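Q: I have 713 residues here and want to know how they pack in 3D. Can you give me a structure?
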Amino acid sequence: MKTKWIAAVAGIALVGCHAGVLMGQEKEDRTLLTQEQMTAIINEVSGERAMHNVMEQVPYQFVRPPSEYQGHFREAEAVAKMAKEYGFSKVSIEDYPSGTTYQPTVGELWTTSPKSVKIYDVHDIPETLASTNANGDISADLVDVGQGTAKDFEGKDVKGKFVLSLAPSGLAQIYNRAVDAGAIGVVGISAIGAGDRAVDYPNEVVWTTVVAKPGTVAWAVSPRVARELETQLNRGQKVTIRSITKSEQVPNKQELVHAEIPGDGSTTQEVAIGGHLFEAYIKQGANDDNSGVALTLEVGRAYLKLIAEGKLPKPKRTINFQWVQEISGTNAWFNAHPEKAKVIIGDLNFDMEALRLTASRSLWILQRTPDTFPSYINDIGQSMLEYIAEVSRERVRYRGTGYGASQPVESPNGSQDAFYIKVDKHYGSSDHVTYMQHGIPAIMFITWPDMWYHSSQDTPDKQDPTQYKRAAAVATGSLAALASGTDEEAARILNENLGRGLARMGESHTKGLGYIADAADAASLNTAYKEARIAILHQAAVEKGVVDSASVLWTNTDTGKKSTSSFAPLIDARATELLAEVKAAYTLQAAQRGITPSEPVQTAEEKEAAGILVESVARAGGPGGPGGGAGGGRRGGPPTGPQLPTEMNAEFQLLLPKHMTALEIRDFLSGEFTPLPLADLMEVLHAREKAGMVKLTQKPAEAPVAAKGKKKK
């Protein structure tokens, strides 16, 4: 009997499956477009074509000839050609001069003793010559300086010699120390990146740059080569290095490719999507970030075809496709087209998209806007990301239809790997930051970790057409929702913001309850209760900002403001309910420990911090707006002196110009991340005040509020 019942159910399920793979789709398998539209997108986007695109751009890493600086770079010409063939509008290559730079033309690293061996040639591996401005044919003995610290140099005669360092980072610092001690060259590794790459990928050369003094040179080598040289020296062998280099000074520029899918003319609003075609002209990366360019090219091709076939409506908002020199190119474009910052309402940035996730031990990650820039755009990306992940995965409860995914998103030449995804907090140092600095909400999609990031092994063979297809489906769906321009889609996005905002407030509630549960004594319990309240109130303020930001999506933004304004008090009501639950949890914990519960009161230190206004002092080269800031990205870092936790630095920089009190800054950072001791923040603020980076002033006393019903005399 049981067997017959299972067979009957399976038969019903199979009928539904044959009628249409999505007939029995679960309600949670929904997103901002219809199932029919999402199916059309999934069927059209091609992982293979994206792979073809990246192979047209950078099939291998190469030394760029100086002649390219006089015209257009080969990648830009390839991308512009494909965009024209696909039917994009207003395709152009734009150049913005920016001084001069050096382009190597010759680079050879040899050992001439104990035997003659050519170790590297830049035409084989361009990343090896760290000092791209080096010129000369120089030879000298090699001296091992270990980690390259000042102590490692003590008692060693390096004058007129090459030094070898196995320090996994800081090649430029070691070069400077060596040259100051009289050395003429450095041979070392620079293995900054994901995981222990020196162990996992011993032949990988990580890209780094050194500005060389005349008559000196710096070479980056793989961990394997460095260890072989070290072994020879440890055996007492004399190792002689010969470096042959030649470079040419060439005109530098910011080069970008721009293309459009035009809107229907019903609105002046526009949107943007893209990735960086160049991170440096010396280094090319198939994944970082020619993959983002290849992906968004394919997104545009598929979108245009689906419009032509009537499967997607023509967008109301014009779509700007931007393929740029990372950050600096985006800034150059906005400087040349200032009107664009006034009309673009959102950006999708794709930076490192196509690795085979299992090979790199990676996830495909959506980086949200920071809490200092709450935006509707996060939930567009998250909705599409989770939709593609859900329909792509096998669910055991579907075993009646053969265990398969409801709509597998896979490429013929790609993997069948699981789609490992993560929605994460903001991270900077890519073009989404630049958009936010111009007041435009932007999110980034990125693969991390990337085991071949910034290295000689960032080549197309690491990429997966299936990952391209999945990323393209997410990107096309997100772009179609963003570019829609209808009030109906605006309301649908707002609903997404409200639903996901409730989940985020629940996460802040869970975080706060965790603080209370972990408290060890009366003092820490009272502090935990205070921190739990801060977390909930912080998230409520963020969610009100998210809903408010969605007003721009309406055809008439005044109508949008009216449509969204009614939700702020409802979010406050949510927060009140969560605060009541936190109070009940605190009261229970206090009763169990024999503690009398009490409402939080400000300490003397908090009262003092509440009276201190923080003002940022403008400095050359400082952060320019939302999303920037020291410590927020892959390069740079905070000033010297006392530091906040690394993950807080970007937001801290953005809070400084907002005329907040020290206590407000502290509560914001604690609410977004984890509790920050007020004393730690004050130490950092005082150190920066001493360095002339911030100004701390006393907050003016607030004027007393006249009692109701009483007239002033």
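Q: Anything worth noting?
A: Residues 1-24, 620-637 have pLDDT under 50 and may be disordered. Residues 487-601 form one domain.
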